[in-house]
Design a protein that fits this description.
heterodimer; A: 508 residues; alpha/beta; MetI-like fold; D-Maltodextrin-Binding Protein, domain 2; five-stranded mixed beta sheet; three-stranded antiparallel beta sheet; 10 strands; 61% helix; B: alpha/beta; Rossmann fold; six-stranded mixed beta sheet; four-stranded antiparallel beta sheet; 10 helices; 26% strand
Chain lengths: 508, 238
């Protein structure tokens, strides 16, 4: 019954997620009803208007939810990370069942009843309110019920764009490959859906005077039974507790670092559980704050900007101190930097650097203005990217930068399609393609020093963890990190083997 | 009961008649249904209109309560052209009984009967009293039937409710469109008797259409046969 345990230890978080989930679904269903009801009435009264209306609602329904969120993301006013976009998406999904069932409810009313109403001298408004809507109400409520149930399910996807809700557990569980965490979110969502179904079915039944309907109790009981059975048998993929749980984000360097921390602790006889490849910074942060993982490696610049939402600080020590203080308040400890700085890197071919004596970015002022720069989309666009760099160093190239996928710029540089690029300081391709990185001597780029983030409670309980990790401080240079990244990314070597070899050469 | 006609060329009998059709022509699309139709109905008269299905019987009724307007000619109700009537006001003072009855399934029997009074803004108490009075009239004891739902009643009982509903605001004119058409022979017989009893009691003007000659002669003071767009009255029966 790991699941019950999980809920018990995450009770307040779970409550907040259920609340957020309900907020998303109720608000969107409410707005969808406010739009869908008049639209359904219009569709029923004017078939010429109704057909395109229903078609539009149907099309919205066919867009996969993740894709819909993707489409909405860049839109002004409604776009952007957070609940607003999720509510818009949920409204779009809720519209079809509501519009369709409203129209169906109205058009299926016995013609004689409408005729009688008209012949008795009802105004169109009276006919709508006294006859049509009351008679269509069970059908309308059925539509709202379906919209609500679909909404509760779809809202779990909203966690993908940071809207919160029970989907957060599901995503966290998926990336941790931990069925307990998935179920921790999935079961409450299913229970919510069943409750909504039950309540709204009851309302529906009450609105149809005297008409008997089959009881819903049986299917609800069966569904509840299945869920409880699944919950009881879940325990698959759950770690043995009492070990140190190490997490990482989902890219090569992070997985290598997670493995490196794990092997370092294991060498000292500390039992660890690996939860590598969790997801982005956000997921790792939530996971460590809720105690699902004990350690992961973060970068000072990322911690400041993306997690703590503070302004970027250029001075590495100041950035480190700011991050350490902010995390301490959340019960998290920042250990000294591992050594390397995974910042943006201005990279040229080694042959050019040697021939022209290029060591720093400043030295680029001496090269031919006909040099062609090449950047990834982000660096080309952002004001703290190329334009800021050019201003800071007084650089000027006559050719406009060639913009391409970040993975391609290294190869474009190696094949002499461009002459200077912006990349990752620790990319394995720098070494593999015989490129060299120029020093940011004016400190234009913010510091992205890799630092282990550890739950303070875990450090207190396991003092040996601190000892072991302190020994890694300052040990991993940019060259080391690049070499390990290259081993995995370029030579396709096994992460465990790569780390083992590194630790054999660099004992800590 | 009648108001003076506004039409200058209105004929003299118009003032005495509740309903009067003058040279009425009506067609659905290219199909001519009524052609130069002329007839008048006096107060407290019961007129039966018979004809084959599709002869335009229902159309005649719909012209009278302005569910339809004639292509040509005039329909006068209480001396006033239906074009000048506010359709809502006209329909509320014209009882209408449909073959399909069209009871409101979401309203109780009493609520169905008291619907037009509700539209007219009567108080709850007055509506209730009126509904009970009418249910008594049509032979449905209110104690047993007032609170029941339409689906709980038999076809004949439902049509009794339909008649009660049409009489709710004591309209001077009642239109009935095949009122007993959907009922079995036994029930038809029974309701015919009821109809005559109620008629004797209320003396309302009634125009009803039917395809049943026996029924027409049994219930109508006059019987008109609608054929080829024209109405021909045969001699009075009873």
């Amino acid at each position: 019954m790991r699941l019950l345990n999980f809920w018990a230890t995450h009770a307040s978080e779970l409550g907040a997620m259920v609340e957020r989930h309900l907020f998303l679904v109720l608000l969107s269903t409410l707005i969808a009803t406010a739009i869908g009801l008049p639209a359904g009435i219009a569709a029923a009264h004017r078939p010429r208007l109704g057909r395109p209306l229903l078609a539009a609602a149907s099309i919205a329904q066919t867009i996969p939810s993740l894709a819909l969120l993707g489409f909405l993301l860049p839109l002004p006013f409604i776009g952007g990370i957070g609940p607003r976009i999720a509510i818009v998406a949920l409204i779009l999904y809720a519209l079809l069942p509501i519009v369709r069932s409203t129209a169906a409810g109205l058009t299926s009313i016995d013609r004689a009843v409408i005729d009688a109403g008209v012949a008795m001298g009802m105004t169109p408004r009276q006919l709508l309110w006294l006859v049509e809507l009351p008679l269509a109400l069970p059908s309308i409520v059925a539509g709202i019920r379906i919209a609500t149930i679909v909404g509760i399910g779809t809202a779990t996807i909203a966690a993908a764009i940071g809207a919160g809700g029970l989907g957060e557990y599901i995503f966290r569980g998926l990336s941790m490959v931990d069925s307990t965490v998935i179920l921790a979110g999935a079961i409450p969502a299913a229970v919510l859906a069943l409750l909504a179904d039950g309540v709204l079915t009851w309302v529906e039944k009450r609105l149809a005077p005297g008409r008997r309907r089959p009881s819903r109790a049986a299917p609800v009981a069966i569904a509840a039974g299945v869920i409880i059975l699944v919950a009881a048998t879940s325990g698959i993929g759950s770690p043995a507790r009492g070990t140190i749980v190490i997490g990482s984000k989902n890219f090569t360097e992070q997985v290598v670092l997670g493995e490196l921390l794990a092997q370092t602790l294991e060498r000292r006889g500390i039992a660890v559980t690996r939860r590598l490849n969790l997801g982005g910074s956000f997921i790792c942060d939530r996971a460590i704050r809720s105690g699902d993982i004990d350690i992961y490696v973060e970068y000072t610049g990322t911690a400041l900007a993306a997690i703590l939402k503070q302004p970027i600080v250029k001075e590495p020590d100041v950035a480190f101190a700011a991050v350490r203080d902010a995390y301490a308040r959340a019960g998290l400890s920042i250990l000294p930097p591992l050594g390397f700085n995974n910042t943006f890197a201005i990279v040229v071919r080694r042959t050019d650097a040697d021939a022209l004596g290029l060591k720093t970015i400043e030295d680029l002022r001496r090269v031919d203005a006909a040099w062609r720069p090449g950047f990834g989309y982000e660096f080309a666009e952002r004001s703290d990217g190329y334009s800021g760099l050019a201003t800071a160093y007084g650089l000027h190239f006559t050719a406009p930068p060639r913009v391409m996928d970040l993975d391609l710029v290294y190869r474009a540089l190696a094949t002499k399609q461009v002459d200077v690029i912006a990349g990752d300081a620790t990319s394995g391709l720098i070494k593999a393609l015989d490129l060299t990185m120029l020093d940011d001597n004016r400190r234009y780029f913010p510091p992205y020093y890799a630092v282990p983030v550890v739950r303070s409670a875990a450090l207190l309980a396991h003092p040996e963890v601190r000892d072991a990790l302190m020994r890694l401080a300052g040990k991993i240079s940019e060259t080391d990190m690049r070499a390990m990244n290259a081993a995995v990314d370029v030579e396709h070597r096994d992460v465990k083997e790569t780390v083992k070899e590194y630790l054999a050469v660099h004992p800590s | 009961m009648s108001s003076p006609s506004i039409e200058r060329n209105a004929q003299a009998d118009q003032a005495d008649s509740i309903v009067s059709l003058k040279d009425v022509r009506f067609s659905y699309g290219s199909q001519l249904v009524l052609d130069n139709l002329n007839f008048s109905v006096a107060a407290a008269e019961s007129v039966a209109v018979v004809g084959r299905s599709g002869a335009g019987k229902s159309t005649v009724l719909k012209l009278i309560n302005r569910l339809l307007l004639p292509d040509a000619g005039h329909v006068y109700v209480q001396g006033r052209d239906t074009r000048e009537w506010d359709p809502i006001a006209l329909r509320r003072r014209t009882g209408y009984v449909l073959q399909d009855i069209g009871l409101f399934p979401h309203l109780t029997i009493a609520e169905n009967v008291a619907l037009v009074p509700r539209l007219e803004g009567w108080t709850d108490e007055r509506r209730r009293a009126r509904a009970h009075e009418l249910l008594d009239l049509v032979g449905l004891p209110p104690a047993l039937y007032a609170a029941r739902w339409p689906y709980e009643l038999s076809g004949g009982q439902r049509q009794r409710v339909g008649v009660a509903r049409a009489l709710a605001v004591d309209p001077p004119l009642v239109l009935m469109d095949e009122p007993f058409g959907a009922l079995d022979a036994m029930t038809r017989q029974e309701l015919r008797g009821e109809f005559q009893r109620i008629r004797r009691q209320l003396r309302q003007t009634v125009i009803f259409v039917t395809h049943d000659m026996d029924e027409a002669f049994a219930l109508g003071d006059r019987v008109g046969v609608l054929d080829g767009g024209r109405l021909t009255f045969s001699s009075c029966a009873s």
